[in-house]
Amino acid sequence: MPQPLVLALSWQNAFCETHRNKKECRRRFWGGRSDNRFTLHGLWPQPREKVYCGVSRDLVALDKRGQWSRLPEPKLSKKTYRSLKEVMPGVVSYLHRHEWIKHGTCYGADAESYFSHAVALTRRVNDSKVSALFARMVGKRITLQQVRFAVDQSFGKGAGKRVELRCRRGMVTEIWLHLYGTAKDDLSTLLHRSRKVRSRCTSGIVDAPGWR
User: Fold this and answer.
1) pLDDT tens-digit series, residues 136-193
2) Is the pLDDT of residue 24 over 90?
3) Which residues constitute the domain of residue 34?
4) Chain center to CA of 75
5) Is position 86 within any domain?
6) Which residues have C-beta within 8 Å of that of residue 195, sequence separation ≥ 6?
7) Concatenated DSSP letters for 14-57?
8) Cα 3 to the chain's mean position, in Å?
9) Distance of CA 120 to the CA centre of its chain
10) pTM given for the model
11) How many structural domains compose the chain?
C-alpha cells in the first residue's frame, strides 16, 4: 500500500565531524578517513508522529534512553545485513536496531523488506548526479538550488522540489528526500508522487574527509 516516507541520508564526512565519539567515526572503524558519499540514516514512514508501531513500552524506554545495544537485532538475511553495513556505518553503533524499533515497525513489512528498500534507495542516490555533485563540491559551499537541479537531472524535472537540506555548524549534514509510494516504485516515481517541501537550510559547506 502506498505511503509517505522520508529517506534521510547523511553526508558521512559531516556526520563524523559532528559526532566524533561515534564508533563508526573512530579511526579503527574508518581507517583514518571518512567517505565522500551519502550514508543511510533512516527511512521514516510519515507523519513524524508515526513511530514505535506495536513496540512494547520496555523497548521504547530502552530506545529513548539511547541503550540501542540492548534492543533486539532485526531479522535479516546475511546478504541484506552485509549490504546494510556498506551503506549504514552506524550499524557498529546499533543504529539499525534503533531505526527498526522506532521507524521500521511502522513500515508495514518485515525488517528484511524494510532494510532492503532503504539500501536500494541509498545506492540509487549514491549512483546519481547528486552524489557526484557533492563529491565535486567537497570543501566548498553548496546551495539548495544546485542540489535540487542535480536531483532534477537524475530523477526528472520537479523531483528536486521534494528534497531539503539539513545543516549544522555551517555544514550540510544530511539530505532528506520526501517520497510517496511502495517498494515497487522507482526513486523517480517516489519523488514525483510526493509533496513539494521547503528547506530551512539553503546552503552549507560540503565537509571534506577527516576532522578539522
Assistant:
1) 999 999 999 999 999 999 999 999 999 999 999 999 999 999 999 999 999 999 999 9
2) no
3) 3-205
4) 20
5) yes
6) 4, 162, 178, 180
7) HHHHH-TTSGGGSHHHHTT---SSEEEEEEEESSTT---TT--H
8) 17
9) 12
10) 0.95
11) 1
Query: Is 164 among the domain residues?
Result: yes
* Model confidence pLDDT, tens digit, residues 102-139: 999 999 999 999 999 999 999 999 999 999 999 999 99
For residue 167, give the DSSP letter: E
Length of the chain: 212
| Measured distance CA(62)–CA(193) in Å, rounded | 36
Q: Is residue 210 one of the residues assigned to a domain? A: no
- Which of the 8 DSSP states describes residue 168? E
3-state secondary structure of 137: coil
Residues 182, 75: Cα–Cα separation, whole Å: 21
Is 211 part of a structural domain of the chain?
Answer: no
Of the candidates 31, 17, 44, which has an alpha carbon nearest to the alpha carbon of residue 194? 44
C-alpha cell at 203: 546552503
Other beta carbons less than 10 A from residue 117's beta carbon: 19
**Which distant-in-sequence residues (6+ apart) come within 8 Å of 28 by Cβ?**
none
| Residue carrying C-alpha cell 549534514 | 173
Judge whether 187 and 124 are in contact, CB under 8 Å.
yes
**Which phi-psi region, left, alpha or beta, contains residue 48 (left: φ > 0; alpha: ψ -120 to 50)?**
alpha
Which residues are registered as beta bridge partners of 142? 204
CATH of the domain at 196: 3.90.730.10
Q: Please give the DSSP secondary-structure letter assigned to residue 93.
A: G
Instruction: Say if residue 29's pLDDT is above 90.
Output: no
DSSP state of 166: E
